[in-house]
Amino acid sequence: MTIAVPKGRLGDDILDILNEAFGIKVEFKERKLIFKDKENTFLKVRNADVATYVNKGSADIGIVGLDVLTEKDVDVVKLLDLQRGKCKISIGIKQEDNLQSLYAKPELKVATKMPLIAKRFFSSKSIPIEIIKLNGSIELAPILGLSDLIVDLVDTGNTMKENGLKVVEDIMDSSAYLIVNNNSYYKNKKEILSFRNKISKLI
Ligand code: AMP
Questions:
Q1: Which end of the chain is more exposed for a tag (fewer CB within 10 A), N or C?
Q2: Closest of 145, 115, 116 to residue 132, by C-alpha
Q3: Residues of the domain holding 185
């Protein structure tokens, strides 16, 4: 099987679990993005690309944050919640602002790197919004008057607090998930479920 592992801290954590489950030592030496053992191939890819590799069948299995998976909106099997990288997708506004007064505006400016999740949330509340798509440092947007609020990942809430914002509403919980390509799942169901059971005992 081919397994797509995200780069970064989450990936390192997950590699420890995979090593234990397979009884191997997956190591991406220097700039190598691929590691092969006798049975499996491991790919080191960006978190945001894991779902694409799995959805297109370049990888059978992948590990990805539910936030990224939801935003990508791709059709894959969600096999197991790995209980790692837990965080929330929440709404933040300026300390001095009031959410209800903001909601009363004819159109809200929403800064986020997750436009789909934000659009779905506000459309479910019938609140018209304009999306300001940013790729990072989202917390700056309300302070500079670029947006009325932000939709962003929150763990402790310290980043928002230190930038003069407060968390006022949670949209969804996120954590890392084991995902599987639909065809691979139906073709190798027994093998994949045994893999799932091994991993689930280690989390
Ligand atoms: P915190 O200050 O603990 O609330 O963390 C918020 C900052 O960390 C924001 O910039 C988020 O984008 C980022 N962050 C928090 N949790 C995660 C996560 N599980 N994965 C990736 N980024 C995260």
A1: C
A2: 115
A3: 2-85+175-200
Residue 166, both tokens = 């407060």
Q: What CA dihedral angle connects 14, 167, 141 and 69, to 10 degrees?
A: 30
pLDDT digits (tens, 9 = 90+) for 10-54: 888 888 998 998 888 888 888 899 999 988 999 999 999 999 999
Amino acid identity, position 125: K
Pocket lining for ligand 1, CB < 6 angstroms: 65, 85, 87, 152-159
Q: Answer whether 83's CB lies under 8 Å from 103's CB.
A: no
55: domain CATH number? 3.40.190.10
This prediction has a pTM of: 0.94
Together in a domain, 80 and 102:
no
